[in-house]
Amino acid sequence: MKYPILIAGGGLAGLVCSIELAQAGLRVILIERKKYPHHKVCGEYVSNEVRPYLEKLRLDLKALGAVEIQRFRLTSPRGNVLDTRLDLGGFGISRYRLDAALYELALQAGVEVVLNTTITDIQWKADGFEVQTPEACYQAEIVVGAYGKRARLDRQLERPFMQQPSPYLGVKYHVRYDFPDDLIALHNFKGGYCGISAVEEGKFCFCYLIERAALKAFGSIPVMEKKVLARNPHLYSILHEAEFLYDKPEVINEISFAPKKAIENHILMAGDAAGLITPLCGNGMAMAIRAGSMAAHEITGYFNHHHNRAQLEEKYAQRWQNEFSTRLWVGRKIQRLFGSEALSEMALHFFGMVPPAMRLVIRRTHGSPF
Ligand SMILES: Cc1cc2nc3c(=O)[nH]c(=O)nc-3n(C[C@H](O)[C@H](O)[C@H](O)COP(=O)(O)OP(=O)(O)OC[C@H]3O[C@@H](n4cnc5c(N)ncnc54)[C@H](O)[C@@H]3O)c2cc1C
């Protein structure tokens, strides 16, 4: 089976990339490990940076139930509060709905989608790729790696970040809670932070990132939540008053924010596979969508304007660097402020004294609408 373009992974980056390529008249196959819809560990706040783009793809955000979010609240581990407005703003929608809606658009655009199939190996063979799944071997001229933050494929590609420790754990629930729809709150606690914001149908996404050491120390998620998160009084209230809608939380392990490369063994990496921004920036989804679109643009240039492979790789790597490297760097620096209780208190105090500083940091981690 030979394809011009194969996309490994159908999250936001992979789906968006496949839709644009198919709409440009190119044959594209996308292979995704799961089927749609599915839940995913994610805060589900999408920056308005990508709203015009999603609307151009004809994604009807209103019909999907997306909720407008315009205000931001930051709390310290002791419960001190800082409120600000979000200059760009965003919207809340579950990944359960958003990814499935993009999948429908991909089918309509003519993308060939293979679901419930894990890619086990991607080999570069002089002038193209061999992509292995348990059932078949695909040949492809171009491969986009859109398989998310960390996969076995990274180990096979011997990517250096796989050698570094990945000390974080992500946990997510959907809850019902008495909370304003237009507000996203980021509550800090020792060793992590937790976001809460509205998604469709009156539900809220409650999602946190925490050092794995905390789970090791307390043995289970409920005990860890009681002993660590609930020390922040805002989180105490949510944990005690909210109605939790899942039987058990969605959990992911081994989250790393180490730098990665946008091109790896000729594969164009997009979304988290190329670099994961710290979740407190609330912008990983927008970056994945933007990177998927950038990859599609450069691949279209390769096929329709006869750019060669070296040009394709160089242009994509350069654009990726220009667009995302500063955001990722700023994200890593801010994350350090929120690891310890004392630093979080100091950061909140500082941002309270100098409100434009917080808005500047938010701007430096976001791009302009496209
Ligand atoms: C705790 C936490 C909270 C976050 N909160 C927010 C937020 O509020 N706002 C925001 O903008 N961003 C947030 N992010 C970041 C955001 O979730 C990611 O940046 C975004 O999901 C990246 O999209 P992606 O398409 O690159 O990867 P993914 O959405 O992870 O998609 C990758 C896909 O590849 C598939 N896959 C993996 N391996 C294989 C394989 N071998 N074969 C086939 N398929 C495969 C997976 O099943 C998956 O569907 C958060 C992240 C974390 C960890």
TrEMBL record:
<feature type="domain" description="FAD-binding">
    <location>
        <begin position="3"/>
        <end position="297"/>
    </location>
</feature>
<dbReference type="InterPro" id="IPR050407">
    <property type="entry name" value="Geranylgeranyl_reductase"/>
</dbReference>
<protein>
    <submittedName>
        <fullName>Flavin-dependent dehydrogenase</fullName>
    </submittedName>
</protein>
<dbReference type="InterPro" id="IPR002938">
    <property type="entry name" value="FAD-bd"/>
</dbReference>
<dbReference type="InterPro" id="IPR036188">
    <property type="entry name" value="FAD/NAD-bd_sf"/>
</dbReference>
<dbReference type="GO" id="GO:0071949">
    <property type="term" value="F:FAD binding"/>
</dbReference>
<dbReference type="Pfam" id="PF01494">
    <property type="entry name" value="FAD_binding_3"/>
</dbReference>
